[in-house]
Amino acid sequence: MKNTLDSPEMEGITPEYVIQLGKKWFASMVDTTPEEELFSLPRLGHRLVQEHREGEIAVLTRQLQRRFGILPEWVREKIAKADQPSLEEWSLRFVDAQTLDDIFSDKA
Questions:
Q1: CA–CA dist 9, 46 (Å, integer)
Q2: How far apart are CA 44 and CA 35, in angstroms?
Q3: Is residue 1 part of a domain?
Q4: Which residues contact 4 (CB under 8 A, 6 or more apart)?
Q5: Is 4 within a domain?
Q6: How far is CA 11 from CA 2, 8, 14, 103, in A?
Q7: Is the pLDDT of residue 6 over 80?
């Protein structure tokens, strides 16, 4: 029996094509599914929270680089290990901060 993956119809289907197709399908599903249903799916809810966290890390990192230049390793490590509330707090502190210490100190 011939393997269906070796058939001529499958010739243009590459791993990259399948990944792109999956991303488009996922985006379409997220866009068309009511929010309460999305978050009722445990793994999907976790993924959405993780993607939000990663986006927040990226924005904070870009803002810090724009204002302070190349970031020291301790800042990169602190951001990478941060929980969501810390990221949110640091994003707010960034507005008034004059130094990296103003943002990342353990002040209340």
A1: 36
A2: 11
A3: no
A4: 10
A5: no
A6: 14, 5, 8, 53
A7: no
Q: For residue 103, with 0-12 CB atoms within 10 Å meaning exposed, 13-18 middle and 19 or more buried, which class applies?
A: buried
Q: Which amino acid is at 5?
A: L
Token pair recorded at residue 94: 């960034």
Tell me which residue range forms the domain holding 70. 13-104
Q: Is the pLDDT of residue 103 over 50?
A: yes
Identify the sign of the CA torsion 77, 83, 84, 85.
Answer: negative
Q: Is 64 exposed, middle or buried (0-12, 13-18, 19+ CB in 10 A)?
A: buried
Lookup result for tokens 């008034």? 96
In a domain, 36, yes or no: yes
pLDDT at 5 over 60: no
Report the distance separating Cα 79 and Cα 100, nearest Å. 12
Asked, for residue 3, whether it belongs to a domain, the answer is: no
Q: How many domains does the chain have?
A: 1
Taking 90 as the threshold, does the pLDDT of residue 64 lie above it? Answer: yes
**Mean pLDDT within 43-48:** 65
pLDDT at 1: 42
